[in-house]
Specification:
By secondary structure, the chain is of the alpha+beta class. The protein contains three helices and three strands. A hairpin with a 2-residue loop joins strand 2 and strand 3. The protein is 43% helix and 23% strand. The chain has a three-stranded antiparallel sheet with strand order 1-2-3.
Length: 107
């Protein structure tokens, strides 16, 4: 939450007409990402570019992410979203199986 407040306070930069620069809209988008477990970038940083990303969650912590980017047209993005989400989940399972979870955090 501190990082989110700092990002909003610093100002959200418009790179394209699709960029989210309204703090309330940005916070709503983050809530949707938390609810769905996947993030989308819909021409917000570059026209013609779409991305989808899902976190690799181990022991309740997002330790990495899997993403896929490509052109807005010619890609089956709902299918890509499904594959990215599955890849992230499978990586998390492999980490847990190979390490029995994350080591304890240092205080």
């Amino acid at each position: 939450p501190v990082d989110i407040k700092a990002a909003v306070a610093a100002g959200l930069v418009r790179k394209t007409s699709y960029s989210i620069v309204s703090p309330p809209r940005f916070l709503i988008e983050l809530e949707g990402i938390r609810d769905s477990g996947v993030a989308h970038e819909r021409e917000e940083s570059a026209l013609g570019l779409f991305s989808v990303a899902a976190p690799v969650i181990v022991d309740g912590y997002a330790i990495a992410a899997v993403s896929l980017s490509g052109p807005t047209s010619g890609v089956n993005w709902p299918f890509a979203e499904s594959r990215v989400r599955t890849a992230a989940d499978n990586i998390a399972r492999l980490i847990v199986l190979s390490t029995e979870g994350l080591p304890p955090l240092d205080d």
